[in-house]
């Protein structure tokens, strides 16, 4: 897969990881961004034409000050689709990306082919309060996100040596920048009233969840099913919130099973 | 020099094992640790001390705003200042201040500060902090990355509300008000002196200089560590071509005075250690949510005040360390005077926020230390800046014929008063 940088009409400059051929699939990353290695996307690109944009504030993408609220984020998603020259792509959104993808599908229901939401944010259940990712120590983040936190920690840091002060500082700055952006739609509670708009969602939808998701627990999968009655729900074992990274094979198998 | 007697109003009954049992004194501290009946006595003791400070000759008495914590019991500093406005008449009421990004709508701050200025006869010193991330983001739910933008807008609205003589419409991003018409207005014109308390965000320097506000660096880690930050500020002042009046800057310092250095340790050590060990025991992520500090500040290298590394330091602090590193200026009047001279000159500050009550310090020790300071230290430090002696730009300008309620019995029956019939 290779990187390209696109300008959107609004004025952001976004880096997009692109590869493969076939039906166009846009993958929207979660609050942590794309990682150093993204085997889930490599595998996906063996079957589809994959586009994975980095959101402003992530990696080399800029223009974060232009996006302030949920509507800005949603329209930016469509601005990207337009800048990529795509018509009616499939959308896959992971976590925060799932929240954005669901919003995109509500605001422009006829412009989505099929929709896949992977442990999406965006709903809130009082009986299952989502842990506050903005108030976590680094090791707690890995514990919340991964079925296997030790392996997860290594995935998050991309193998960087964080005992090195410079490496640590760089990692810290990147992480602060990413979460500052995510906070605009996730802080203090990741609920921007998407539930009021889900009635508009008509695209065929598949909801994927990791069985050991400790951040947004699988009870939320049921909630999504209630909100989108036509959705198919699949729960995958040995996977936490970072399902696409922990079980890339199973993830792609489910995606392919749904998209065809 | 101007001296303000400040009380953070900590909860003095945090248990000995607080640090081990609880992760944070702020945000998610169990509220069962608070006892309202004890709280009744605590508030009155602290308020009495502030009133006592006026009688000792302090120029100002100070309070500030914090939420959901055992570090400072003033969710509403305006309530505290309101009680003081009826029991004092000479000292400035330094409310440092209202976290204006959290108010909805912030016109409330314009109104309440105006009320305080009017009731006190023009003695308000008005602080506009961004607020700690614990308060503004985690307790009051403001989005970190938008907090500063919201702060700027709130500031614009308040200042416009004070300045305007006509109702106006305010079409803000966070506040839309068709009719802004501040009643009452402050006595001090064009507005009360404005203080911007900062923890170390470099954007704050330019903001203060744009409007000629006082920059108050509030750190508990003493003047030796505060120096690099204030040096940065003064560099910025010079670069902007502003005059170098020391009254542009204020600094907060913990001060403990006793007859001798050894006596200071005997009297105050346990209470200062209580403050550092328990009152500053903040779960590090609460002190540094992504987006609260700008990229410019992070890259400048200013570390967050409450990092995990700093928490480690706090855990093992000794009195020796507190004193040697000047987190605390403590000792005989001579020792304190000499160190404060260093602090005032080194930081180039015209205002000192003096913290005499620390942690769980009992009333008598607080008063003892304050009195020794007022009698044996303060007079020697008054004229540190002779060339700026008449610079009153950053201080209150009260009415001359203001009422002195503390000298009257306001609630008593008015004997012989003529009532219109």
SSE layout:
The complex is a heterodimer of chains A (260) and B (421).
Chain A: E1 2-7, E2 13-19, E3 24-28, H1 39-44, E4 49-53, H2 70-83, E5 90-94, H3 96-107, E6 114-118, H4 138-145, H5 149-157, H6 165-186, E7 204-210, H7 219-227, E8 232-236, H8 243-246, H9 248-259
Parallel strand pairs in A: 3-4, 3-5, 5-6, 6-7, 7-8
Antiparallel strand pairs in A: 1-2, 2-4
Chain B: E1 2-6, H1 18-21, H2 36-56, E2 60-63, H3 77-85, E3 92-95, H4 107-119, E4 124-127, H5 133-139, H6 144-163, E5 168-171, E6 176-180, E7 194-198, H7 203-211, E8 214-217, H8 222-239, E9 249-257, H9 261-279, H10 295-300, H11 308-315, H12 319-324, E10 328-331, H13 333-347, E11 351-355, H14 363-376, H15 378-381
Parallel strand pairs in B: 1-2, 1-11, 2-3, 3-4, 4-7, 7-8, 8-9, 9-10, 9-11
Antiparallel strand pairs in B: 5-6
Helix pairs in contact in B: 2-14, 3-4, 4-6
Descriptive report:
The complex is a heterodimer of chains A (260) and B (421). Chain A has 260 residues and is α/β, with parallel strands linked by helices. Chain A has one domain (2-259): Alpha/Beta hydrolase fold, catalytic domain (Rossmann fold, 3-Layer(aba) Sandwich), CATH 3.40.50.1820. Chain A has helices spanning 39-44, 70-83, 96-107, 138-145, 149-157, 165-186, 219-227, 243-246, 248-259, and strands at residues 2-7, 13-19, 24-28, 49-53, 90-94, 114-118, 204-210, 232-236. An eight-stranded mixed β-sheet of chain A has the order 1-2-4-3-5-6-7-8, with helices on both faces. Chain A is globular. The two termini of chain A are 22 Å apart. The mean pLDDT of chain A is 96. Chain B has 421 residues and is an alpha/beta fold. Chain B has one domain: TIM Barrel (Alpha-Beta Barrel). In chain B, 41% of the residues lie in helices and 13% in strands. Chain B has 15 helices and eleven strands. An eight-stranded parallel barrel of chain B has the order 1-2-3-4-7-8-9-11, surrounded by eight helices. Chain B has a two-stranded antiparallel sheet with strand order 5-6. In chain B, α4 (107-119) links the parallel β3 (92-95) and β4 (124-127). Chain B is globular, with a radius of gyration of 21 Å. The model of chain B has no long low-confidence stretch (mean pLDDT 94). The A-B interface holds A 68, 134-137, 172-173, 175-184, 187-189 and B 27, 137-138, 141, 143-146, 283-286, 289-291, 293, 295, 298-299, 308.
């Amino acid at each position: 897969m290779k990187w390209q940088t696109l300008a959107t009409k609004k004025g952001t400059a976004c880096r997009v990881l692109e590869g493969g051929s076939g039906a166009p699939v846009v993958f929207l990353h979660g609050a942590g961004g794309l990682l150093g290695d993204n085997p889930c996307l490599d595998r996906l690109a063996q079957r589809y034409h994959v586009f994975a944009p980095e959101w402003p504030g992530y990696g080399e993408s800029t223009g974060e000050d232009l996006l302030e609220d949920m509507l800005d984020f949603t329209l930016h998603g469509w601005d990207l689709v337009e800048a990529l020259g795509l018509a009616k792509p499939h959308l896959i959104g992971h976590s925060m990306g799932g929240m954005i993808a669901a919003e995109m599908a509500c605001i422009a229901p006829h412009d989505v082919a099929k929709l896949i939401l992977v442990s999406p944010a965006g709903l809130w259940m009082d009986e299952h309060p989502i842990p506050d990712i903005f108030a976590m120590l680094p090791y707690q983040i890995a514990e919340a996100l991964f079925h296997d936190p030790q392996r997860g920690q290594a995935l998050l840091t991309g193998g960087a040596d964080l005992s090195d002060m410079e490496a640590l500082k760089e990692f810290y700055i990147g992480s602060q920048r990413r979460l500052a952006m995510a906070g605009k739609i996730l802080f203090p509670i990741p609920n921007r009233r998407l539930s009021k708009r889900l009635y508009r969602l008509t695209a065929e939808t598949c909801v994927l969840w990791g069985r050991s998701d400790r951040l947004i627990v699988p009870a939320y999968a049921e909630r999504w099913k209630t909100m989108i009655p036509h959705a198919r729900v699949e729960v995958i074992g040995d996977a936490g919130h970072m399902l696409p990274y922990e079980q890339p094979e199973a993830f792609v198998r489910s995606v392919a099973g749904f998209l065809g | 020099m101007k001296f303000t007697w400040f009380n953070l109003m900590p909860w003095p009954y945090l248990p000995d094992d607080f640090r081990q049992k609880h992760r944070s004194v702020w945000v998610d501290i169990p509220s069962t640790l608070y006892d309202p009946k004890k709280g009744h006595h605590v508030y009155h003791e602290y308020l009495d001390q502030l009133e006592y400070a006026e009688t000792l000759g302090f120029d100002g008495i100070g309070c500030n705003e914090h939420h959901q914590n055992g570090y400072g019991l003033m969710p509403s500093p305006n309530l505290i200042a309101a009680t003081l406005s009826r029991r004092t008449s000479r000292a400035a009421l330094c409310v440092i201040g209202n976290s204006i990004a959290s108010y909805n709508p912030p016109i409330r701050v314009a109104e309440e500060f105006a009320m305080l200025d009017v009731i006190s006869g023009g003695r308000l010193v008005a602080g506009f902090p961004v607020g700690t991330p614990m308060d503004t983001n985690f307790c009051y739910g403001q989005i970190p990355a938008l907090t500063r933008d919201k702060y700027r807008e709130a500031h614009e609205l308040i200042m416009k509300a004070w300045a305007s003589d006509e109702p106006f419409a305010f079409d803000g991003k966070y506040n839309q008000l068709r009719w802004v018409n501040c009643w009452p207005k402050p006595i001090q014109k064009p507005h009360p002196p404005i203080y911007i308390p900062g923890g170390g965000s470099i954007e704050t320097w330019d903001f203060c200089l744009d409007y000629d506000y006082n920059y108050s660096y509030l750190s508990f880690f003493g003047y030796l560590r505060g120096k690099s930050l204030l040096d940065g500020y003064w560099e910025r002042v010079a670069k902007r071509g502003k005059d170098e009046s020391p009254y542009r800057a204020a600094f907060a310092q913990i001060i403990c005075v006793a007859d001798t250095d050894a006596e200071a340790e005997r009297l105050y050590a346990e209470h200062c250690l209580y403050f550092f060990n328990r009152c500053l025991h903040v779960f590090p992520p609460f002190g540094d949510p992504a987006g609260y500090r700008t990229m410019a500040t992070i890259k400048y290298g200013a570390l967050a005040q409450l990092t995990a590394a700093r928490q480690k330091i706090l855990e093992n602090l000794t009195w020796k360390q507190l004193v040697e590193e000047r987190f605390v200026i403590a000792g005989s009047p001579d020792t304190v005077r000499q160190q404060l001279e260093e602090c005032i000159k080194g930081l180039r500050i015209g205002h000192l926020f003096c913290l005499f009550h620390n942690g769980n310090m009992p009333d008598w020790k607080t008063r003892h230390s304050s009195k020794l300071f007022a009698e044996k230290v303060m007079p020697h430090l008054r004229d540190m800046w002779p060339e700026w002696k008449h610079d009153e730009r950053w201080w209150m300008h009260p009415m001359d014929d203001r009422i002195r309620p503390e000298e009257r019995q306001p609630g008593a029956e008015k004997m012989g008063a003529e009532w219109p019939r």
